[in-house]
Amino acid sequence: MTLAAFLNVIGLCLGFVSAVFFAIGALTMTPAKIQKVAATYWDANQHWGDSIADQRADYIVGALLLLLAFFSQLLATLVPSTFEPSLLQPFGCAIAEIVAALALLLVCSVFLRNAIAKSTKSQVRQLQAAGCILITSAPVGIEAGTAGKLIVWEVRPTHLPEGSRYALCTAYLR
To answer: Residue 36: pLDDT above 90?
Structure first.
């Protein structure tokens, strides 16, 4: 097998695995998970944050694999078509090397995806514990004529009673 053909097959396979990572968020969204994500919760919707963190990790790994696929196929066009390294001879060895390379990349991708998801979920939980700013365009009126305008709810954790995770929100018009 030529090096160009080898790189082209690797690139095609990486492109397929990349597409799987891009689609995995939608494929794993069961009706029960959708209900948990769509439900309202007191303080914060942890299911929604986890779902978005998982999707972020899937997209990052999918994008990295897509870039690797692109560069592999680009190298396949730049390498002389007659170049046949001894590692890829005979054809059966080339197929085994392709399978081994893809298995290694898939394992590394899954580990990277899980590490990114775990890190993102941890950062989101830290931000939720510290307090946040929520923006809503709900038709809430503070005084006559303000219904439907953009309201900014500002949560200030410095104003919380000792040990409390909840705050009274102040609202003002923007």
So the answer is: no
